[in-house]
Design goal:
- The chain is mainly alpha-helical and 313 residues long.
- The chain has one domain.
- It contains twelve helices and no strands.
- Helix 5 packs across helix 6.
């Protein structure tokens, strides 16, 4: 079987792509309100329902796109299936930390984790892919490390919510690139793989009397079913938007969601935000400004090189 080559990164921003990405990031930004509504339900149960109710939504999308054959091929390809199991495991851990953190009143730490994520991703690329970092990127990563150190000093231990979210999402995105299917197909493959353990846990919870689906009222049942919508819809909207935007544009837009989460955590959920957290966030914001300037500088350099090549041709 011939190996599919990955499409080249999109080099033009389109209004449609921007609209898709913006909607996805706004939905992710306001997701803490939904997670707060299910905070009385154990995180593992919420995640199980996120998986189960995402399956029919993702399946309908693939049927409409006519891409179901990709899933059949993936299920028959051991390497793709194993990579899907790995990414499915990483996204499960990420979801579990996120759901728990919102319910436990640690949304500020969750926001910090997603701020750190792009910096952790370029660090991963440097370590695992041996990509060289410029001075600005090194400075940004150093500031992020100092910020995490400040939080560790304040709490007397590693800020595992922030580190866990950044780490699991960073590795998820890294290995996702090796998944030889499109983003929508990849998401369906992941939730399909997770369906059996998710259904197993739901069955255990309901038969043990600790479940919340149907036994604690219609509200909980609808909220748990809605977990599939709030999980699958933003991911699929984002997947379609990302194809129509430059990588640098996506890199800048990804700050939208953690910024909204941060505002909600501090001003709506009234989570504590002392001087150490303030200092950590200031360092992260400076780091992200440096990282963004590096992205923009790289894009200008590529555009200048392309213009020279076009003129010389």
């Amino acid at each position: 079987m011939a190996t599919k080559t990955a499409p080249a990164p999109y080099d033009e921003d389109t209004p449609r792509g921007f609209a898709f990405a913006l909607v996805a990031y706004l939905l992710w930004g306001f997701l803490p309100f939904y997670m707060k509504a299910v905070a009385h339900i154990p995180a593992v149960e919420v995640v199980a329902h996120r998986v189960v109710w995402s399956v029919p939504i993702a399946a309908v999308v693939l049927i409409l796109l006519g891409r179901t054959n990709d899933i059949r091929t993936a299920l028959k390809t051991p390497r793709t299936l194993m990579m899907g199991m790995l990414t499915a495991s990483l996204i499960t851990v990420n979801w579990s930390i996120y759901v728990w953190s919102i319910g436990a009143g640690r949304a500020v730490e969750a926001a910090l984790g997603y701020y750190i994520n792009p910096l952790f991703s370029i660090f991963l690329a440097s370590v695992l892919l041996k990509e060289s970092l410029d001075g600005l990127q090194k400075a940004a990563i150093a500031l992020a490390v100092v910020a995490v150190g400040l939080l560790a000093w304040e709490s007397g231990g590693v800020p595992w919510v922030s580190v866990g979210l950044a780490g699991t999402w960073g590795f998820y995105a890294f290995f996702k690139k090796s998944l030889a299917v499109g983003p929508n197909q990849g998401f369906f493959l992941e939730v399909l793989i997770l369906t059996i353990p998710a259904l197993g846990y739901i069955f255990y919870a309901e038969t043990s009397g600790i479940g919340h689906f149907g036994d604690t009222g219609m509200t909980d049942m609808l909220l748990l079913m809605g977990c599939g919508v709030v999980t699958a819809v933003p991911l699929m909207i984002y997947a379609n938007g990302a194809k129509l935007l430059r990588l640098s544009t996506i890199g800048i837009m990804q700050y939208i969601a953690p910024t909204i989460i941060f505002i909600i955590a501090v001003f709506v959920f009234k989570e504590p935000f002392g001087p150490y957290k303030l200092a950590a966030f200031v360092l992260i914001w400076i780091a992200l400004a440096i990282y963004t300037s590096s992205l923009l500088r790289s894009r200008k350099a590529r555009q200048a090189a392309a213009a020279v090549a076009a003129n010389s041709g």
